Amino acid sequence: HLPALCSTTAFVFFSSTAPPVSGSVVRGSVGQNVTVPCLYSVKMTQGVTSVCWGRGSCPASKCDQTIIWTDGWKVTEQYNRRYTLKGNLLMGDVSLTIVNAEEADSGTYCCRVEVPGWFNDQRNNREVVIEKAKISTASPHTYTSEQTS
């Protein structure tokens, strides 16, 4: 009975260190680089692993509308140069950076970390909101000097 208890504890520990983050919102401005976080524990997955990023919520397997893949060591597929992985892949930082963000980049993104075994994949849904930069509507100050006669 003890080994079963240990494996259950390990699974719970993994779940608590890498919970699904559905509903997390990342905000950015048009023209900026926006980083959408996604991390996994290399130790808990027995080494680096492959990860896909896609548009839309995470499906039952893989990613829909895939935008970038990594085998855990390097980027293996990149469908648009504006989507990059700038984190330390070997440490499990597979955060997505959207370069020169546009309003059209708003929406749901899926980061799927492939974990060996049935139904073990870590699925992270992130909501991204890209807005136009707010422009100040304050009128400029005008300075006048008082003339003396």
From TrEMBL:
GO cellular component, one term: membrane
GO MF: phosphatidylserine binding
Annotated SMART domains: IG
Signal peptide: 1-23
Key words of the record: Disulfide bond, Glycoprotein, Immunoglobulin domain, Membrane, Signal, Transmembrane, Transmembrane helix
Ranges for domain Ig-like: 19-131
This protein's name: HAVR1 protein
